[in-house]
């Protein structure tokens, strides 16, 4: 049966990287005789320019009709002055909410090929880094009401609300523990329960969910300490379970220490299909349109799409193996090392697709 993937290239380097991800998907499907169909829709600044909304209803409908959604990136200086409800970021936040994608999986892996690009001291890097951030994605201060800017006591005052219900915490905790059971059975829940009520409830619910997973070793860590431990010794982490804003910040940190933001994929899942797959980096307007972007985070997101979105693990493994093989000889500028051949975005996409084709 043909599976349909809705492409949302978005802004900046989004178009270039999604094109490379699509090549990888097609090559993997061809190799094993699977049939894929693609649709494409507007999101972010590109959608705003065309329709006046960063998330047109037509885009939501097309995503819902697909088996999986494949997103590039949104945003850029061109749209910085827009009000929050018109900004490109609202497109991403909106589609996450519309599709109920409450669980964001962000694996951070230091590939042996990239050990030289790792930002950590060699003795720390040697211990390895293989963790996954399980980030709650549809709640927290990102979506809490009330929010706004209003005049209080004669001064403009900005306010947001950090809020989590028990049920929201429970369902992401279940994803965290299920993920740990498939990995090294270690879970670190990150919060700020020494200061925040939302975090106190978070910790209580996580401990309650933990009772159903006696095999999983559970630890709680304050977010400031977690940020520090991530650079001090990331090898201590397996699953990092956390809320929306802490997860946003810690996943960029985890990505950067592996060598480049350009390498890390992500999956955003709900209780039903379609799920959404995207690199964790942004739209990099400074290098957009110059064929310089690293497409590998997007290509690795294509692998996650096949494994988790379409239940095609064999095809996912083909893509991942091709990425490792490509890295042995070829690099984009962000991960360039002596002795390797420098290539642009499109060339890297062609090399990986060629390796997938075998
Ligand atoms: C991410 C991004 C988004 C977020 C932005 C673009 C809204 O930083 O996916 O990490 O904050 O979730
Ligand atoms: Mg982010």
Please outline what is shown here.
With about 350 residues, this protein is an alpha/beta fold.
Task: Give a structural overview.
A 10-stranded mixed β-sheet has the order 2-1-3-12-11-4-5-10-8-9, sandwiched between helices. A two-stranded antiparallel sheet has the order 6-7. A two-stranded parallel sheet has the order 13-14. The longest helix has 19 residues, at 14-32. It starts with a strand and ends with a helix. α1 crosses α10 (296-309), α1 packs parallel to α12 and α11 (313-329) crosses α12. The relative contact order is 0.17. The mean pLDDT is 96. It is α/β, with parallel strands linked by helices and 358 residues long. It has helices spanning 14-32, 44-51, 57-65, 88-98, 122-126, 166-181, 197-210, 223-232, 244-257, 296-309, 313-329, 345-357; strands spanning 3-10, 36-40, 68-73, 103-109, 130-136, 148-152, 155-159, 186-191, 217-222, 239-242, 265-269, 275-279, 330-331, 341-342. The radius of gyration is 20 Å and the shape is globular. It binds 3-isopropylmalic acid (IPM) and magnesium ion (MG). Magnesium ion (MG) is lined by residues 248, 252.
Biggest sheet: strands side by side, in what order?
2-1-3-12-11-4-5-10-8-9
Write out the distinct hetero groups bound to the structure: 3-isopropylmalic acid, magnesium ion
Distance between the termini: 24 Å
Q: What portion of residues belong to β-strands?
A: 15-25%
Following the backbone from N to C, one meets helices and strands in this order, namely: EHEHHEHEHEEEHEHEHEHEEHHEEH
Number of strands: 14
Specify the overall morphology: globular
Q: Mean pLDDT, rounded to whole units?
A: 96
Helix % is 40-55%
How many helices in DSSP terms? 12
Which structural class fits the helix and strand makeup?
alpha/beta
How large is the radius of gyration?
Answer: 20 Å
User: How many strands, which pairing sense, and closed or not: the largest β-sheet?
Assistant: 10 strands, mixed
Model regions low in confidence, pLDDT < 50 over at least 5 residues? none
């Amino acid at each position: 049966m043909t599976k349909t993937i809705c492409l949302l290239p978005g802004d900046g380097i989004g178009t270039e990287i999604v094109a490379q991800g699509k090549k990888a998907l097609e090559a993997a499907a061809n190799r094993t005789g699977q049939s894929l169909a693609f649709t494409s829709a507007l999101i972010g600044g590109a959608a705003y320019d065309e329709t006046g909304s960063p998330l047109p209803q037509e885009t939501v409908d097309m995503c819902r009709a697909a088996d999986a959604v494949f997103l590039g990136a949104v945003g850029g200086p061109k749209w910085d002055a827009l009000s929050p409800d018109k900004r490109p970021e609202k497109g991403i936040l909106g589609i996450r909410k519309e599709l109920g994608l409450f669980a964001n999986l962000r694996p951070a892996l230091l590939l042996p090929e990239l050990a030289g690009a790792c930002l950590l001291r060699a003795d720390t890097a040697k211990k390895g880094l293989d963790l996954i951030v399980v980030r709650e994605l549809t709640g927290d201060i990102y979506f809490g009401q009330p929010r706004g800017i209003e005049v209080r006591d004669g001064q403009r005052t900005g306010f947001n609300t950090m809020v989590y219900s028990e049920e929201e915490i429970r369902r992401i905790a279940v994803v965290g523990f299920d993920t740990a059971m498939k990995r090294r059975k270690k879970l670190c829940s990150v919060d700020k329960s020494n200061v925040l009520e939302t975090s106190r409830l978070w910790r209580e619910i996580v401990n309650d969910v933990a009772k159903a997973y006696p095999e999983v070793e559970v630890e709680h860590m304050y977010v400031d300490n977690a940020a520090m431990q991530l650079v001090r010794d990331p090898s201590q982490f397996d699953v990092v379970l956390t809320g929306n804003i802490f997860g946003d910040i810690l996943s960029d940190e985890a990505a950067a220490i592996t060598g480049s933001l350009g390498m890390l994929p992500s999956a955003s899942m709900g209780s039903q299909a379609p799920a959404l797959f995207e690199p964790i980096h942004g739209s990099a307007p400074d290098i957009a349109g110059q064929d310089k972007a690293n497409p590998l985070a997007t290509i690795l997101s294509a692998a996650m799409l096949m494994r988790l979105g379409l239940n095609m693990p064999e095809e996912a493994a083909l893509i991942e193996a091709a990425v490792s093989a490509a890295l042995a000889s070829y690099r984009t500028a962000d991960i360039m090392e002596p002795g390797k051949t420098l290539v642009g975005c499109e060339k890297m996409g062609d090399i990986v697709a060629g390796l997938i084709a075998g």
